[in-house]
Each structure stands twice: as structure tokens, then as C-alpha cells.
Amino acid sequence: MKIVVDAMGADKAPAVEVEGAVQAVDELGLNVILVGDEPRIREELKKYGESREKLSIVHAPETIGMHDPAAISVRRKRQSSIVVGLDLLKKGEGDAFVSAGNTGAVVCAATLSLRLLPGLERPGIAIAIPTLTGVSVIMDVGANITPKPIHMLQYGIMADAYSRYILHKTKPTIGLLNVGEEETKGTEFIKEAYTLLSESKLNFIGNIEGRDIYAGTADVILCDGFVGNVILKVSESVIDTLVQLIKREIKASVIATVGAVLASSAFNSLKKKMDYSEYGGAQLLGVDGRCIISHGSSTAKAIKNAIRVASEFVSEDVNRHIVEELESY
Amino acid sequence: MKIVVDAMGADKAPAVEVEGAVQAVDELGLNVILVGDEPRIREELKKYGESREKLSIVHAPETIGMHDPAAISVRRKRQSSIVVGLDLLKKGEGDAFVSAGNTGAVVCAATLSLRLLPGLERPGIAIAIPTLTGVSVIMDVGANITPKPIHMLQYGIMADAYSRYILHKTKPTIGLLNVGEEETKGTEFIKEAYTLLSESKLNFIGNIEGRDIYAGTADVILCDGFVGNVILKVSESVIDTLVQLIKREIKASVIATVGAVLASSAFNSLKKKMDYSEYGGAQLLGVDGRCIISHGSSTAKAIKNAIRVASEFVSEDVNRHIVEELESY
């Protein structure tokens, strides 16, 4: 098994990708191909001693930036790390792709290059989030901002497989995000999605509300990509704002500063629990291949975890389970 | 000026409404009419000594519950505190209405009873939220889950007036919530709203993202009622989850417990800053009257603040400013 890693995606590329890849090779025994600017990757690799048999490099001279237009860049930059990396999967030279780069470009390139699984119309992005009771999956968080009701059923089937085979839940509960719990609530789109989900074989528990997400009410939270994108960004923003406000308050008081130092073990433990990077990034589901999109601010540990989760998607053959489930409809 | 208060709306009704009304009369010198179950209101009032000239009661024997269907309840329960209270405004016996009850029912009853301001098609709910730099307004947070692009322009005009005349901002910046900053991002609905806002006289700063909301990037954040509802509920949920996780972590460590006690001044100060009730609840804008919807979990202080803000909407004549602005288009 070989995991292809885009070495040029993260804000701190290629340093974090190279370090994460080295950790994945050394600690997890995985084979990794780093794709990107070879001289820069080699330079980074020097930090980690002699060369490793399980770690190879494929040169890609171009880079698609975080703010480059996705579809145009993918068509024009055929030598970019994203396009070259996904081509390796297409040619059978790699089993999964990990990138911390431009999400839109990865979705676009993966859909063009790998194509979709049979029976699917649109890919979607699923992300695991920490909750009060454990971990849940939100899907879609931004691949498809104008889905049809049938896509929500397909997202439900894909996120269900993710929960079962990667997160090891036996009968994941599936909730549809809405503005109220009653079946009569929401837009026409939501009501139609509700009907399709009710008639499915999924363990559908009905509508859930924004407040239920982090309470862990459902193992899978289904929403359109616009709402999912807003949820993730607002959640990060609330936490960042709280931390900044706490810092300001603490600075204003000597006693509080002493207290904060003493309470820091609690904060650190909490921080670890809330750390998205522990969960291995966002999964692009629905493409005929395995594709993980990490946060632009990924650390080496986040990259290592993404590589680990990518290998689990391969060994658990999640895509086969998804296709079998889709065929049964 | 007389503020009509639904005494039966909050989770702890009528206790918090009665206490909040007494505070508004005693501390702010306002005239308040409490509407609801008269014997229960009188019983609560006994706690606050002899009767007050500025505080009166209008009996309403029925109550619309939090989970009652909005439109049906408003039509059937003509003797409910919401319907009776809004009728007082219609008859000119009150100048503003405050309720901590069923949001959908208040929106529905207010629209039917007070009608809309000339030139408007749909009401919207605006709410003031604390940010890193001060306070911003989000609109709509749930009155209209399927708005048209023109409604977003109208929401912009209304929230702009709220920011100017109640929050005293001189040239409020208006942002459109989207999945990216670029003009080309988002659904067709968002792109059309973007065009209308660009061509308006508003101080429109373009698209903003979920992470910009609490950073205070814009004074006004415009979004549809579905997204706005999710934002508010997710934000509350993230904070609640953090607090619960911190409590768990702290319990697990004696040193952390000591630290937390010492740091409590910082947390209390922070809590006050994040307290929505300081900002006087949510404003139902667009109806031909003043209508404030408080949180179901409102305290007496929250009700008092809502009454205060309601009186400011009257004295600043915000609706006249909105109508004049709408007429200029």
C-alpha cells in the first residue's frame, strides 16, 4: 500500500508534509510518496537523517495556491502537485491521496481524474468532529453547495460507511440538520431529503438542530455544503474568540494569571480533545479512490494522522462497502 | 410610551417577566403592561411590594407553548398572551411588544396583526452578538428560511438602521455571509443578493465567511434564516460544550480546581461579555410596530434589557428611518 502526499499544500509546506510523512513511515510502517518541488522536499528531508526505502519523491514543479480559482487552476496547472499526485492514483501507482491544499482544486481534480463511484452524482466532504459523547461526522462541509435531496441520501450512505468502518460504530444514528425537530420544518429541499432518508435502510433519527451537533445527538449530521462550511468556520471562530477573550481577561488580573497557570493542565487536555488533527482531516467521499483533505494549518502530526486514516480507508475498503450499499437501492 | 410584555413566554414565566417588568418600571421609569394569566401575574407581583402606577395587567387566559405549531396556534388561540398583546399595539394602547415565547408564533401573529412596513415583502429577525471588537448584528436568524435576493437587500437596510440608531454606529459595514470571499463564490441566490447589495447605498464590504462573524469583520452579517438559525444554535452549542468539557477536566485534577477558582474572575468577566441578554434580545424587523423576541431561557435582567431596547426603538423611531430608506430605492 502506498499513500501519495501532496507536499505543497499546507501553510507551512513542505516542512509539515515531509515531517508527517517521515513519522508515518517510521512510526506506522507505511509507504509514502511525496509529490511536489523535489529540491525543496530533499532539503527538508535532510533534517531526518539518511534516506528511507519506504519514502519516495515524485517531482511536480507547479503549485496551486489556496486562493487560486479551483477549476481553472486544475485545467491549466497539469504539473501541479495536486494534479500529478492524483494521476499517480489513477495510474495505480498509489492507493490514497492526502493534501492540505486548496480544497476546491482537490475536489475538482479528484472528480476529473478518479471519476465518481457508480451510482453517484456528486462527491461530498465528510469531517469527523469531537462531541460531548465522542466523535461524530458532518457531511457535506463544502464540496456541493446546491445539492439535490437525492444527494443527501447518498451522503447519508457514505457517512454511514465512514462511521462503521473507520470510526467502528455498529449502528450509526443519522440526523438531518434543520431549524427544528418537527417533520414539517424546513425548506422543500430539506423535506424531500427527510422523506428519502426516512424510507432508506439507514438508522435515520430525523431532524436535528444546530445545538445537537456538539452534544453528540447523532453519529452523522447531514447538511448541504454551504451550511456545513459555515458550521465549521463558525465553530473555529467561536473557540478562537473565546481563547482570545480569556487571554485578555487573564492579563488584566494577577490572581487570574496564577490561576490560569495552575488550570493549564485542564486546558491542555481539553485542547487535545478538541484537536481536529487527531481525527485525520476531511474525507472526500464519492470519488473512485481515497482522498483526504487536511486543514491548511495542518501540523506534521495532522499530516501523519491523515496518512494513517488514508491507509485505513484502503485496508477497510470503505468504497466497496459504499458501492454495495448504493447498489442495493 | 407603553411597553407591552408577554408574561407567559419564558421557560420561567411569569416569574422572570414580572421581575423584569418591575425592574424596568423602577429603574428605567418606563410604563409596562403585562399580558397573561392575571391571577398568576398578581401572585408574582406580591413579591415586589405595593402596586405601581406605571405597571398594569391585561388578562389573557390562553398560552401558546414553545412547541405549538405557530400559524395554527395564532389562528386558534385568539385569547393567548401573544395575540392579545399584539392586539394592544394594533389598537394603539401600547408602543412596543416584548415576548420570550414561541418565535414562530410571534412572527406570525405580528405579521398578521401589525402588517408589514410599506415596500417590504417579508419580516426578518436581527440579533446583536458580541464580537472581538464590540457588537455586530446578524440578520435573518430564522423568520424567513427561503428568502429571495431582494429580501437580503431589505434586511441590509433594516439591520443598517438598527446599527445606526440603536447601536450608534456611524457607517455600519455590511457583509454577506458566503463560503468564500470572492465575488464568484456561492449559490445563485447569494450572487444575486451580492449584486443588489453592491448597487445599494449601503456600506457593503462584500462576502464574509463564518470565521469573520465573531472576529467583528462586519457590523452587519446578512444570511438566510436557515443559516442564521444554525449559526446561533451552533455558537451556543460550542460554548456549552467547551464549558462542560472544561468542568470535566477540572474535576479530574486538584491543582486545576485551585487554579480554576483563582481564574474565576476572568471567566465571570468573560461570561458577562458573552451574555446575549445584555443586548436586549432579537428584533423582529419589517413589521409596522416594534417587536422584540427574547430567548426562552431569559432571566429577569434579559427581560428588563429587552424592555429598555424596545423603548429605544420607539424613541429613535427606527421604523421611520427604515421606511424613508426603502422609499429612496
Oligomeric assembly = homodimer
CATH class of the largest domain in chain A: Alpha Beta
Q: Strand order, biggest sheet of chain A?
A: 3-2-1-4-11-10-5-6-9-7-8
Could you describe the largest sheet of chain A, including whether it forms a barrel? 11 strands, mixed
Helix content of chain A: 40-55%
What's the number of domains of chain A?
Answer: 2
Mean pLDDT of chain A: 92
Structure overview:
Two copies of one chain form a homodimer. The first copy, chain A, has 329 residues and is α/β, with parallel strands linked by helices. Chain A has two domains: 152 residues, Isopropylmalate Dehydrogenase; 164 residues, Isopropylmalate Dehydrogenase. Helices cover 46% and strands 16% of the residues of chain A. Chain A has an eleven-stranded mixed sheet, sandwiched between helices. In chain A, helix 1 links the parallel strand 1 and strand 2. Chain A starts with a strand and ends with a helix. The interface between A and B is large, with 62 and 61 residues.
Which key features would you list for this structure?
homodimer, about 325 residues, alpha/beta, Isopropylmalate Dehydrogenase, 11-stranded mixed β-sheet, globular
Summary?
The structure is a homodimer of 329-residue chains. Chain A has 329 residues and is of the alpha/beta class.
Question: How are the SSEs ordered, and which strands pair?
Answer:
The structure is a homodimer of 329-residue chains.
Chain A: E1 2-6, H1 15-28, E2 31-36, H2 38-45, E3 55-59, H3 70-76, H4 81-90, E4 96-99, H5 103-114, E5 124-130, E6 135-139, H6 149-165, E7 173-177, H7 188-198, E8 203-208, E9 220-222, H8 225-251, H9 254-262, H10 264-273, E10 282-285, E11 291-293, H11 300-315, H12 318-327
Parallel strand pairs in A: 1-2, 1-4, 2-3, 4-11, 6-9, 7-8, 7-9
Antiparallel strand pairs in A: 5-6, 5-10, 10-11
